[in-house]
């Protein structure tokens, strides 16, 4: 019974009813996205379907699916997506404790047309303005990986747990209490081209190669970090690359904070530069 997401949230997460309920809506959204990825004919923006109707690109569709689910959960005060410039404030009657959700609807969407794994990332706070919030204030973080299988990994601060979507569209527990060890043999060097201008980064990468680390890098943060989490070891980096990305490309609110929370809850460590673009 504890093998399904609903019951795991209820009996193992330690999360209050409102948070559990909201995570269920997020999981529901990822099932729709899973379905859209499997059935869409790529959904490249500006293309039209058989009936001549314009199709939404997958990332825009994923964004709408998630925003709609957050809205109908009735538990979200405000939400912000990597796809939008402004936060959305929900004005429905909020009864229970409410939350603020920051999310990246389809991270790595440039990989969609080549059929590489992609994902959705969610960072959850008690409700309030996003400006001024720190990663340490998160009450939950989760992500979905859309690969050969669709999986969902969550933490509410009590362990990190992986579920796999089965053929009747239920998330079934595949790994409980995932842990990361102190040693590593994998490296995932994002933005490797920065090593050209950054001698310290070059030295680091050279050092990993000299030590015989194995390269595991797909160009999608979600599957790359998921690999580290599930193998229980590894290092992922994404250094700055001025002038294009003077603070690195990855966004603190949508990508770094939720993964830092998940990694730390699994016993790993995260380092985010003091200055980073939201
Ligand atoms: P996105 O949010 O626009 O998809 O960008 C984030 C992705 C990460 O998944 C990945 O780590 C990184 O971009 C790779 O960037 P690049 O190919 O520019 O090195
Ligand atoms: Mg992203």
Structure described in brief:
The protein has 278 residues and is of the alpha/beta class. It has 6 helices and 11 strands.
CATH architectural label of the largest domain? 2-Layer Sandwich
Pairing-aware structural class of the strands and helices?
alpha/beta
State the end-to-end distance: 40 Å
Strand fraction? 15-25%
Secondary-structure element string: HHHEEEEEEEEEHEHEH
Describe the strand arrangement of the main beta sheet, using strand numbers. 2-1-3-4-5-6-7-8
Low-confidence stretches: none
Number of helices: 6
**Mean pLDDT level:** 91
The helicity comes to: 25-40%
What's the gyration radius in Å? 19 Å
Distinct small molecules: 2,5-anhydro-1,6-di-O-phosphono-D-mannitol, magnesium ion
CATH secondary-structure class of the largest domain: Alpha Beta
How many structurally independent domains?
2
Q: Name the shape in a single word.
A: globular
Your description of this structure?
- This protein has helices at 5-12, 17-39, 58-73, 199-210, 221-231, 252-265, and strands spanning 76-81, 88-89, 99-107, 118-126, 138-146, 150-155, 161-165, 171-175, 186-189, 214-215, 235-237.
- It has 6 helices and 11 strands.
- The protein has an 8-stranded mixed sheet, with helices on both faces. It has a 3-stranded parallel sheet with strand order 10-9-11, with helices on both faces.
- The protein is globular, with a radius of gyration of 19 Å.
- Helix 4 (199-210) links the parallel strand 9 and strand 10 (214-215).
- It folds into 2 domains: 5-175, Fructose-1,6-Bisphosphatase, subunit A, domain 1 (Fructose-1,6-Bisphosphatase, Chain A, domain 1), CATH 3.30.540; 186-265, D-Maltodextrin-Binding Protein, domain 2 (3-Layer(aba) Sandwich).
- With 278 residues, it is an alpha/beta fold.
- The longest helix has 23 residues, at 17-39.
- Magnesium ion binds next to strand 3.
